[in-house]
Amino acid sequence: MFANWKCSLCNVYFTSHGTWKxxxxxxxxxxxxxHCNAVFCDEDIVQTLLARHKGKFKCSQCLKRYLFRSALMHxxxxxxxxxxxxxxxxxxxxSFKHKAELTEHCNVHHISDSPTYFCTECSYQGKSMKCLTExxxxxxxxxxxxxxxxxxxxxxxxxxxxxxxxx
Length: 167
Prior knowledge:
- By secondary structure, the chain is of the alpha+beta class.
- The chain has a domain at 113-167: Double Stranded RNA Binding Domain (2-Layer Sandwich), CATH 3.30.160.
- Helices cover 35% and strands 14% of the residues.
- The protein has 6 helices and 12 strands.
- The chain has helices at residues 17-27, 43-53, 69-76, 99-109, 129-136, 155-164; strands spanning 5-6, 13-14, 29-30, 39-40, 57-58, 65-66, 85-86, 95-96, 117-118, 125-126, 144-145, 151-152.
- The strands form 6 sheets. It has a two-stranded antiparallel sheet with strand order 1-2.
- A hairpin with an 8-residue loop joins strand 3 and strand 4 (39-40).
- The radius of gyration is 21 Å and the shape is globular.
């Protein structure tokens, strides 16, 4: 039998819509707003999304709502084909819709080869705060434990383990 249903958060495949839906309900957090269908690993993100659903500033193209006009204006750039932030260095020519993306690109690819962000737990060195933040998750203690004793940082990894070894 083919596994046609894939969980977009933990990349586990399922043979039926029903088993996929049970997995999502048990392992992840679903936005309760009708027709939203957004799924997240973190309950706090769902609460933020619910607040956004109540926002008074609505995108005319995709109908997403925002609490602040500035957030809507930032979002509207995603629909535009125009990429106004261009790095004009010879041999690059990358362009971006948001200034923050251009800044991160410059910091990672064009400014000094020496890393500027250092991990306080190990010898890791990164070129951006985003890289350092993603790295820092490796130092967090595992939150999930299987009855066989193996521990996991993320619940989907525990779920995959229990399915693989029939625990």
